[in-house]
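Researcher: Please predict.
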Amino acid sequence: MAYCIMRVEKRKRSALYGLQIEANRTAADHERGRDFAASDINWELTPFNLFLVKAENWGKAVTAALEEAKVQERKNSVVVLDGFYGASPEWFLDKTLDEVVDYFKDCLAFHEKAYGKVINAVIHFDEATPHLTCQSLPIIEKENGQASLSAREIMGGRNDYRRRQDLFYEQVGRPRGLERGESHDPEQTKKHLTVQAFKNQQLEFENKQLRKESQKLQNQCKQLLLQNQKLEAVNQSLSEHSQQSFMQYCMEYFVKNAKVRGANGQTKNISDGFQAYVQQYYQELRTNWERLNNPQYEEERFREHEYQQQPEIDDREH
């Protein structure tokens, strides 16, 4: 079951630079040593991040927008509403690039309608799960036509935030088959996840998947090791058989080709003498061979051997 994810937080001007260098990161940032150790960025994919709206300098963009709206910025004012939009990792598995981008474009449209004019929006494809970060100005127009900076009025209370979560689900998530989390989940009511907390959740999910894959691979390795052991045993047996056959061949070759001197001093092959010997004593050799291979003879030999092993008995003791 996949869920649509939306989170919006208040940001003051002092936080803008840090947010900007991470959101609008480039491969050059990595070369300069900016690794953002708390994130799981794959810098090889950073060039594929997609900007839907881009501000080169967030501080200047905020100042220009406030001046255009003739809004007075107070000390420690919340100047940006920082949005994070995503979905459960499994939702992206069978989606095309166009489907993913369309989803985040709808997220951006919802954010701009609910939270004000967006100055920067980028889809991050260089992390474990694609997501959209966008920043908007909490400017509202009063009944008298004047504008003011009021993140408190736009954000409202917990019920207002829950209502917007419901709207986001109905307008953006539900049409895509995504689910909404429980509205009264006490754990979700207690705390709103930070960006890093969300990333940690995604990493934990992916780690579980990797552990499952690792277990499968370990089982496959065990099977391969067993097969390898069997093959080694077969190979050893074949090697021994081959060696035995080779030695037998050598013996036969030696007997066939070795030469000896006869009684009259002539040279002749051992095999010739062997054949003559077999012909001369064939019947005697055949009788002995059959006797040796007779099971009854084996039993007699065993009994004879057993008798020979009996200790001598002292007649006086007996």
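Model: The chain has eleven helices and nine strands.
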